[in-house]
Specification:
About 25% of the residues lie in helices and about 45% in strands. It is elongated, with a radius of gyration of 19 Å. The chain is of the alpha+beta class. A six-stranded mixed β-sheet has the order 2-1-6-5-4-3, with helices on one face. The chain is built from three helices and six strands.
Length: about 140
């Protein structure tokens, strides 16, 4: 039963994320949750997590697919580990960006019996994009 409830939470997360609903996403987290995403400092608490998702979805439409590989319940705590594929379609018409990665989520069962995200970390499996080659940069001609 607990694994089914956690699967439901994962499904609710995907649905809220893919619809761009920052408020519904935030409701899936504990009040003191910590989200640790790549290339940004930890995001702590409901207000900061909602602001993070609002900012992300302001950049474009997102789609994530989560594939759980291991879920284990340990009393009122559980963890969910797996992989993700995430695509962002920028609002400015730039090409879509797709990332393949992995996640680890620590879940907490509340007094109401509902599971929520307490801590999460996600990071990419894709190679880091190298910085531009300074030799390839065009140099403006000197003014006389």
């Amino acid at each position: 039963a607990e694994l089914g409830a956690i699967k439901g939470l994962r499904s609710s997360f995907e649905s809220a994320f893919n619809s761009g609903d920052a408020a519904k996403l935030t409701a899936l987290y504990t009040a003191d949750a910590v989200s640790m995403q790549e290339h940004m400092p930890p995001t702590v608490g409901h207000d900061a997590i909602q602001a993070m998702y609002t900012q992300m979805h302001g950049m474009g439409a997102w789609n994530v697919t989560l594939l759980a590989e291991e879920t284990k319940v340990l009393g009122d705590m559980a963890y969910d580990r797996g992989t993700f594929v995430m695509t962002m379609t920028p609002k400015d018409g730039s090409p879509n960006v797709t990332e393949n990665g992995k996640y680890l989520v620590l879940l907490q069962r509340g007094a109401d019996g509902l599971w929520k995200v307490a801590r999460e970390i996600g990071n990419s499996n894709d190679p880091m994009v190298p910085p531009p080659d300074p030799k390839a940069a065009k140099v403006a001609p000197k003014q006389k």
